[in-house]
């Protein structure tokens, strides 16, 4: 299947799901700086996938996919803190981690094909 728009990219779709999950999970969190950072990191994943795709250059696409992978790592790292601070339950933590690992794996596979 040829990808004609960024919405066709599975890692973008998964990143959107992750963002909605993170935004919902932290919606009422009162640690505003923490909430803002994890939400911005989560939305950065899909935004960088979209931006890289729209650049229409494999080198730039690869560059933005690496940035998206970095944002996955940031969300994962912050999730450990969120769990320790009891901002989230273990089940929610596991879901975030699994999302991030899957997205990073998909991005790595895509990067290899470039």
From TrEMBL:
GO CC list: ribosome
Q: Which SUPFAM superfamilies match?
A: IVS-encoded protein-like
Keyword entries, A-Z: Ribonucleoprotein, Ribosomal protein
Superkingdom of source:
Bacteria
Give the NCBIfam families listed for this entry: four helix bundle protein
Name-wise, this protein is: S23 ribosomal protein
The organism encoding this protein is Candidatus Yanofskybacteria bacterium GW2011_GWC2_41_9
């Amino acid at each position: 299947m040829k990808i004609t728009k960024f919405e066709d990219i599975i890692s973008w779709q998964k990143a959107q799901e992750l963002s909605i999950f993170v935004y919902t999970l932290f919606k009422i969190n009162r640690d505003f700086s923490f909430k803002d950072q994890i939400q911005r990191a989560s939305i950065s994943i899909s935004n960088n996938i979209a931006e890289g795709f729209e650049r229409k250059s494999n080198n730039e696409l690869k560059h933005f996919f690496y940035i998206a992978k970095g944002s996955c790592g940031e969300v994962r790292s912050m999730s450990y803190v969120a769990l320790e601070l009891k901002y989230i339950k273990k089940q929610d933590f596991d879901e975030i981690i699994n999302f991030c690992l899957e997205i990073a794996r998909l991005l790595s596979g895509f990067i290899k094909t470039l």
